[in-house]
Amino acid sequence: MLSTILRALPLRCQLCHHRLEQHDYPWCHACHASLPRQPRCLHCGLPTPYVIESCGICLKKPPPWDSLVCVGAYAFPYDKLLHRFKYQGHYWLAPALAKLLATEIESPAPLLLPVPMHWKRRLWRGFNHSSVLAAELAQQLKVQSEPNVLKRIRATRQQQGLDRQSRLSNLKHAFSIEGKLPPHIALVDDVVTTGATIAQLCRLLRRQGAERIDVYCLCRTPPDAS
């Protein structure tokens, strides 16, 4: 009954709120064409003047993953869309957000692992947004997504606002892993800023035999921009 009512309602662009045709949802052609794009380092995902294999930062201190693919910075309109998806229950945005990310991925990993959420936080929020995003992304890339391989076994404080040392201490012994892994995997998250959480997971995955680790995220933002 509810789905029938929803289908009968006029669809509107999630950015400019103009009426849409069914196949355009969730944004119109004009808004989609105006979505910001920026050249980035293929290794760390940070902005660069032009697309480059490894930037100066990566050459000096390579991150523990092999490549990072993102859609853009955590700024308008991506920040608004993610806020609606994560905190306002707009689950219907997941396929469109995953599609934006899927178009940036050329050779997908055969297995996607969402960044895990502690059960207490998942209970409070109602769902793990990274798991939902990974499942949608896997469907579009025609690969597998396994939400239960990585576990967050210790409730941690929010990373935002912590200095580097505090972030590292906060994540110590926070994760575990179950099951065997293929040589090539990808971690999926919504936003990567300092990369501390992703780096901790990468170290755990390397110890379990992962040979190549990609990171797929919607937004990649420099630490001083968060």
From TrEMBL:
Q: Name one GO molecular function term.
A: kinase activity
The answer to whether UniProt assigns keyword Acetylation to this entry is no
Q: Which CDD domains match?
A: PRTases_typeI (cd06223)
In terms of domain of life, where is this protein from?
Bacteria
Q: Which SUPFAM superfamilies match?
A: PRTase-like (SSF53271)
Q: What sequence ranges are listed for the domain Phosphoribosyltransferase? A: 130-222
Q: Which UniProt keywords apply?
A: Kinase, Transferase
Annotated family: Belongs to the ComF/GntX family.
What's the protein here called?
Ribose-phosphate pyrophosphokinase
Name of the gene: prs_1
